[in-house]
Amino acid sequence: MSMDRLIENIVKTQNPSVVGLDPKLEYVPEFIKEKKFKKYDRTLKAAAKAILEFNKCIIDEIHDICPAIKPQAAYYEMYGYEGVKTLYKTIQYAKEKGMFVMTDGKRNDIGATMEAYAAAHLGLTDVGGEKIEAFGADALTVNGYLGSDGINPLLEQCKLYDKGIFVLVKTSNKSSGELQDLKIGDKTVYATMGDMCEKWGSEVMGKYGYSGVGAVVGATYPEQLAEMRAALPHTFFLVPGYGAQGGGAEGVSKGFDKNGLGAIVNSSRGVMCAYKKEECDEQDFAKAARREVIRMKEDIISYLPRIAFPD
Residue 190 pLDDT more than 60? Predict the structure, then answer.
């Protein structure tokens, strides 16, 4: 399954982190923006072109030391069809460089509509009998709160095309507890959703003990992260909230197993805007991103056993 490819990339790079490429135009260095504005004026096309160059430069610097990227669809959709084209090109470029790509779309629907989402992001689209890959990500974040009707169409694509999903379980935002911490009988809503991930994942198990159904569990709630790691032995975690949102390396370590596997930790602004934090020359933005990826990796693995395949 696709999680096997992710795990292999993590072991190869010894790095359990993913870079969230969620670029606002304000994150892009001025010299790139001015170049695109000069050519395309101050248009959505110019913005999308600037973001694509920004993304490619970062990917060029990190692909050998980082296993994955996670582009958030909304940051591309805000630039219209030109932005969506940049999302596609970013996905393809990262894959060409050997990176695992998880599209952060948090899709949530049922029946034919979810089948369409699944085909768009994970599978193939039928065009007069020709099967064509629309976006081609390796995994997609999804909202499971419509139940199995919203997940089953995705599982079919996972089986057919060796893809994965990450289901929202315990998210990193401050108000997540308003719903997710409520009890259903003696279990919280998030624990119930976690159990469902284990059940759904039993249909798409990989060779390293993790299924094609992962879970989003936030770094900002380390106790719940530890609880979910113990309860969900076959569910791989995507862990947002490290760095800018307040999650620390010691806390996120609770999401990992005895082999240093079982989770991948996201950082978005911390990497994209590393050059601003360093106050270095903006021409050095991509190398600053690389330095931040290395810093983040060393921070996280300092709390983990050596990352290795299961015995």
Answer: yes
Q: Which residue has the tokens 């629309």?
A: 134
Q: Is 223 exposed, middle or buried (0-12, 13-18, 19+ CB in 10 A)?
A: exposed
pTM above 0.90, yes or no: yes
Burial of 21 (0-12, 13-18, 19+ CB in 10 A): buried
Write the burial class of residue 302 (CB in 10 Å: 0-12 exposed, 13-18 middle, 19+ buried): exposed
| Domains annotated on the chain, with CATH | 2-16+103-301 (3.20.20.70)
Is residue 106 among the annotated active site residues? yes
Q: How far apart are the first and last CA of the chain?
A: 18
Q: Which one is catalytic: 35, 106, 187, 276?
A: 106
pLDDT tens digits for range 167-180: 999 998 889 899 99
Looking at the DSSP assignment, which residues form a beta bridge with residue 263? 237
